[in-house]
Amino acid sequence: RSISTATMHRALLVLPLVFFLAEAGPNPQRCIHGKIQMGKCECDEGYTGSICHREMHCSTFERAGNGGCTACLEGWEGSDCDVIRCENGQPDQSDVRCVCEPPYSGEHCDELERNNVYSHYNNKAASMNPVLLSITIIPLGIIVWACNTYSKKRRAKKVEHLLESTVNRDLKSSHVRELLYGKK
């Protein structure tokens, strides 16, 4: 398709207006933590950015010649200490929040919460191949069952020997198990 001459002339008339508005400076409504001074945002103490939207995380009140920080708080970097450092994750698009890799959490992805760890590995196990999962769970179930059974028998034998030595009578093992674990 070809563009008509009238459309081309309108575009040429509108173009300078767009450039003028773009060069006029930030919108006074958009200077978040500061005020407009000579067409630019003048940021309040502790903020930086073209519209004063980025918080500085300086460790001291000293400032460099350009107004940046001389030292940053733990977990922050950059000349204005406004870029987050993530230990187990990546900064989001704004560089002020971390997107943590599971099972990590916290502001800098440096915390491991028990529930997050359990949830992460339970989800991982559930997503595994069911055959592979059953190969690991069935033997574990058999081991738990065998340990519980053996433990009950040992406990019953100990009680039986203790009662025999104090009562001086022969006791049936089945009676002792019935007393300990109920009828079977």
From TrEMBL:
Sorted UniProt keywords: Disulfide bond, EGF-like domain, Membrane, Signal, Transmembrane, Transmembrane helix
Cystine connections: 100-109
Domain EGF-like intervals: 77-110
Signal sequence residues: 1-24
Bilayer-spanning residue ranges: 131-150
Pfam families per UniProt: EGF_laminin
Name this polypeptide is given: EGF-like domain-containing protein
